[in-house]
Write a structure and sequence with these properties.
This protein is of the alpha/beta class. It contains 11 helices and 8 strands. It is globular, with a radius of gyration of 18 Å. Bound molecules: adenosine-5'-diphosphate (ADP) and magnesium ion.
Length: about 270
């Protein structure tokens, strides 16, 4: 039976391409034959809506209820609340009630690991679980980092992200030391790049020069395209919406990089156990 690799798409800045990356990397992995669960951990529910569930407030079960019941140690039946999408992935949806969860977790014991405990009940069924994070460094993001094996950090190549990136890396290393020693940075992913503008090229070069030695920066860059922006309301991935376009090609290439990285890590673990 497989044990999922859990990947968090995290950046405390909004609009960096987290949701778009979660959706298209997730479906990209499913297209390669992997069993994939996407988890919408943002109260704004953009991922849930992008996948075609456009009234998340009407869903009977969403992540917040599942986490509340996990915290209360109530039984959750197999597959409860998990939705299926036509492109071969499963989804734990979100809705606005997740925004109240941070408050209700305050008095819980081990409140940083509620998401990890919930995912522990489903992860045997999947090869990959991708968590779409919210734009903050609050308790939900800590839960996301505590549950993850690795973090992918989408960075929009249009603004200088330096300061925010430092803060995020600091949070990742704190969670690693205090809660989740196995946590790794999968890589920084440059999104919405535009090879025609100097600024975009300069930021790409700057990030690779500044961080490239310390942490992985994915070779793949996701180009800016209106075709990518269109899918947030279409209910389908870029592979259905514009299969021959440059963004679909980029997400296919990112999928291959992530699979190659996972294969390398598996080999390394095997070698260490010999
Ligand atoms: P986040 O989840 O980090 O807030 P999103 O994935 O929602 O970021 O992307 C922010 C906005 O940019 C959305 O409106 C989305 O449709 C758009 N977008 C995402 N990726 C691209 C892209 N490659 N080209 C153009 N627009 C994009
Ligand atoms: Mg988002």
């Amino acid at each position: 039976m497989s044990r999922a690799t859990i990947i968090a798409c995290t950046n405390q800045k909004g609009g960096t391409g987290k949701t778009t990356t979660c959706e298209n990397l997730g479906i990209g992995l499913a297209n390669e034959g992997k069993k994939v669960l996407l988890v919408d951990a943002d109260p704004q529910a953009s991922l849930t809506i992008a996948l075609g569930f456009d009234r998340p407030d009407r869903l009977p079960v969403t992540l917040s209820g599942l986490l509340e019941r996990t915290a209360a140690e109530e039984e959750i039946s197999a597959g409860e609340g998990i939705l299926h999408h036509a492109e071969g992935i499963d989804l734990v949806p979100s809705d606005i009630s997740l925004s109240g969860l941070e408050v209700s977790l305050v008095n819980e014991m081990s409140r940083e690991t509620v998401l990890r405990r919930y995912l522990g009940t489903v992860k045997r069924k999947y090869d990959f679980i991708l968590i779409d994070g919210m734009p903050s460094l609050g308790m939900l993001t800590i839960n996301t980092l505590a549950a993850a094996d690795k973090v992918i950090v989408p960075v929009q190549a249009q603004y200088l992200p330096a300061k925010g990136l430092e803060q995020l890396l600091h949070t990742v290393s704190r969670v690693k030391h205090q809660i989740n020693p196995g946590l790794k940075i999968g890589g920084v992913l440059l999104t919405m790049t535009d090879s025609r503008t100097n600024l975009s090229r300069e930021i790409s070069t700057l990030i690779r020069d500044t961080y490239g030695g310390k942490i992985k920066v994915f070779d793949t860059e996701i180009p800016r395209s209106v075709r990518a922006a269109e899918i947030s309301s279409e209910g389908v991935s870029i592979f259905r919406h514009d299969p021959n376009g440059k963004v679909a090609e980029a997400y296919r290439s990112l999928t291959k990089e992530v699979l190659a990285q996972a294969a390398r890590e598996k080999r390394r673990k095997l070698e260490q156990s010999l």
